[in-house]
Amino acid sequence: MTQIKAAITGIDVYLPDYILTNDELSKMVDTSDEWIMQRIGIKERRILKEAGKATSDMGAWAVENLLRKTNTDPADIELLITATISPDMMFPSASNLIAYKAGLKNAWTFDLLAACSGLIFALQTGASFIESGKYKKVIVVGADKMSSITDYTDRTTCPLFGDAGTAILLEPTSEDVGIIDHIFHTDGSGSKHLHLKAGGSLRPASHETVDNKEHFIYQEGQAVFKFAVSKMADVSVEMMKKHNISPEELAYLVPHQANMRIIEAVARRMGISKEKVMVNIQKYGNTTAATIPLCLWEWENQLHKGDNLILAAFGGGFTWGAIYLKWAYDIKK
After folding, report:
1. What's the pLDDT at 333?
2. Can you tell me whether residue 83 is helix, strand or coil?
3. Contact, 325 vs 127, CB < 8 A?
4. Are the C-beta atoms of residues 108 and 93 closer than 8 Å to each other?
5. Contacts (Cβ under 8 Å, ≥6 apart) of 146
6. Coil, helix or strand for 39?
7. Model pLDDT for residues 137-190, shown as the tens digit of each residue
8. Quick one: pLDDT at residue 332?
9. What is the pLDDT of residue 292?
């Protein structure tokens, strides 16, 4: 019996129009373009400024772009999964709202929260539904309005994050392409280094939590950097060894875009050249669940059917992991 695999058959994005540059940030907080570029590698980031718009709007706009691009009927989408840490509200879910706004009347939906690893966790979850034979068309959204939980008086975190929405279409295939394997890990002991302190059931919103700025991202940069380099590198090398993929056989590493120095360190551990690493952090910053799809979207014209890709991420929790996939299509010129 032919094994069914899940293949990425389309990808599209939504990027806010407003560009927040390092020069503009330096007028808001004690920082500079030189400081940010040397330590993080980010030049600018997109910010959703439109009043009354949130993560679900970016996700819905990305889904609409994807449906048009792939000539897919919204009624044919059976499942939508959204990876996000910045839903519009605690409930209903961002997925619920995205499906409504994008006209997905036959899809059931849910959110997956795994911080910066959310996209690969959601991608594998969607793939599992395809592999079961139950569904033919699944959309995975990675969307975050990180500006809504960023403290623009904190020079250590405000240069890092941007906003974006992305959408990936998964469909079944019997060819030698698609998602091949995944290796995922979580470790809750890392929560003290990277978290959002208030807003949940432990510390509900109050005057105290707002006054103490506990609804913004808290990150201990050095600890996160150390863990991210070792864990992303370890899991990526493990995947290469498991499937006997040499550096020459790997078309691209698609890493989560959190910090340029992390990306470079992971590539060195994997033994691959910088030409084989997708990097666009300088243009978009860390968009959390949207970073990996943004890379795939930008490199789509350069990818070829059968290309070996490793998608790797590390996020708060801690969460980390890697997916090995073979790209499923060539763009029609």
Report:
1. 53
2. strand
3. no
4. no
5. 86, 161, 162, 163, 217, 286, 287, 288
6. helix
7. 999 999 999 999 999 999 999 999 999 999 999 999 999 999 999 999 999 999
8. 74
9. 98
Apex 319 CA angle, 107 and 270, nearest 5: 110
- Rounded Cα distance between 80 and 103, Å, is 12
Hey, what CATH topology would domain 5-175 get?
Answer: Peroxisomal Thiolase; Chain A, domain 1 (3.40.47)
Q: Give me the architecture of the 180-326 domain, per CATH.
A: 3-Layer(aba) Sandwich (3.40)
* Alpha carbon of residue 163 to chain centroid: 11
Q: Among all residues, which ones are annotated catalytic?
A: 116, 256, 286
Buried b (16+ CB within 10 A) or exposed e, 278-311: bbebebbbbbbbbbbbbbbbbbbeebeeebbbbb
Alpha carbon dihedral 228, 13, 144, 302, in 10-degree steps, equals 0
pTM, 2 dp: 0.97
CATH topology agreement for domains 5-175 and 180-326: yes
The partner residues of 186 in beta bridges, in order of sequence, read 319
33, 253 in Cβ contact below 8 A?
A: no
Taking the domains of the chain in order of start, what are their residue ranges?
5-175, 180-326
Give, for 250, the enclosing helix (H) or strand (E): none
- Could you say which residues of the chain have pLDDT below 50? none
Do 67 and 102 contact (CB within 8 A), yes or no? yes
Report cis status (omega within 30 of 0) of the bond before 16.
Answer: no
pLDDT value, residue 146: 98
Q: Which tokens is 129 given? A: 């539904």
Which helix (H) or strand (E) is 252 found in, with range? strand 252-255
